[in-house]
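Lab meeting, action items carried over

1. Structure of the two-component assembly. Owner: GW. Status: complete.
Input record:
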Amino acid sequence: MRWVNRQVGRGGRVLLGATPILLLLLVYIVMAASRHAVNPADKILPLPGAMADSMAALLFVPDQLTGQLVFWADTLASLQRLGIGLGISTLMALVVGLALGVLPPVRATFGPLVTGIAVIPPIALLPILFIALGLGETAKVALIVIGIAPVMIRDIAAHVSALPKEQVIKALTLGANSWQVMIRVALPQAMPRLLHAIRLALGPAWVFLISAEAIASDVGLGYRIFLVRRYLSMDVILPYVAWIALLAIVMDAALTFLSHRLFPWAHGESH
Amino acid sequence: MSTLLSFRDVWVEYGDRIIIEKLNLDIEEGAFVSVVGPSGAGKSSFLRLILGQEGPSRGVITLDDTPLKPECGPDRGVVFQRYSVFPHLSALRNTILGVECEKAPVLGRLFGSARRAAQEEATEMLTAVGLGHSLDLYPAQMSGGMQQRLAIAQALVKRPRILLLDEPFGALDPGIRADMHALIRNLWRKYSLTIVMVTHDIREAFTLGTRVLALDKRRHDPHAPHRFGATVVYDLPMRERAEASSEENENITIDVKRNN
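Predicted assembly:
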């Protein structure tokens, strides 16, 4: 049988998918063990036990200075920044993207501006944000918004303006005005695309969040990683990275689930 | 029969490309006009003119003796070959949309008794096109024929002065197409519609229409093919045959075979 025709069943998929991950973990443990055999105080490749010990301190023991559980305070701060940034970007994508996509005069006026902002590397704007908005939460959220909103806006605008022209004409012959075309024809069909755009924006959003936290912050997942780097604390960095990956996967899966649940017509389900 | 739509010396030009030249035409109320012609003979432009998607470069088009605005409006309904229905709405909500747009300019939605009245009207129209049992299906769950039925119901709920059909049955297979022919004839008679149908299918044009218009170029310059536009070269009244065949078609019910 040719490879393009080999379908993998459910059990097979789990097994095949887990194999490279487990293999990678095994390779890590073997390498860590061999380094520790030579030097028991090795910090570069910590053993799982060492990771568990240092993480337990961050998870369950309140920080002496602030009285907070460090790990949870970091997670909460980062998720809050990410959530606000994503929320503002999503709202902007919906409002601006819809107007750009449906109304030609708006597209003519603001299209070039959005394109212009979208091609600026957001990190290059970070100093401006810190100067203008200070080193607090606002600048970090602003970096996320500037980083992902233009791309999302352009994606929604392109999707909306690519809707078949026949649909808009049909709506007009049904007596719709511009506003009704926007809310009854374009908006519902943009929603599944919006959830997809959020999924794609999650990756860059994390990048901008970690960057902002690394440069100026006093709490947050990115801040912690860059802080403990000074002490070569791989036993903290690695679990933190794994935790970030887990959070990202959960968000992605939740968005996919939500899209299938809310917009079954867009996924060819219930066929 | 009074004149509903009239073209007076209408030209359509894009730069120095002439698409339609010197078109003079009157369409009576209650007519079923089929429009045929080779590709590039301005069939689509003709339809866009009536639809209001574009205006004529010269000349006047009047509907009920008032000049047409170059913008689509609820007095002219349309069914395209594809993309005529909204994929995110069920059949019933696709059909209600026309009523909702008229009565709810801000929210675009009706509630309470107004909504129930609209639903009743839409259900009646969907039953008339044979979709009475598919009210809650989404277009993606429907066959091509059912989608076209839905598109027709959606347009008719607005009671348009003219119904425009742009190759509405072109993408359907022959059996279903025959059912659709019977359906559109029945609807035309039942609701006293005025229909303008553009089609590639000559047979369809002659069997359905009470009048067949052939669009083509009267003159042709091989060195500058775009210098002359198309106009009506044949205008064939089919009334007698239409009346005669209507007798034998009397017992045709909607989708007897239930095959779409």
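2. GW to write a short summary for the group page. Key points so far: The two ends of chain B are 36 Å apart (CA to CA). The mean pLDDT of chain B is 84.
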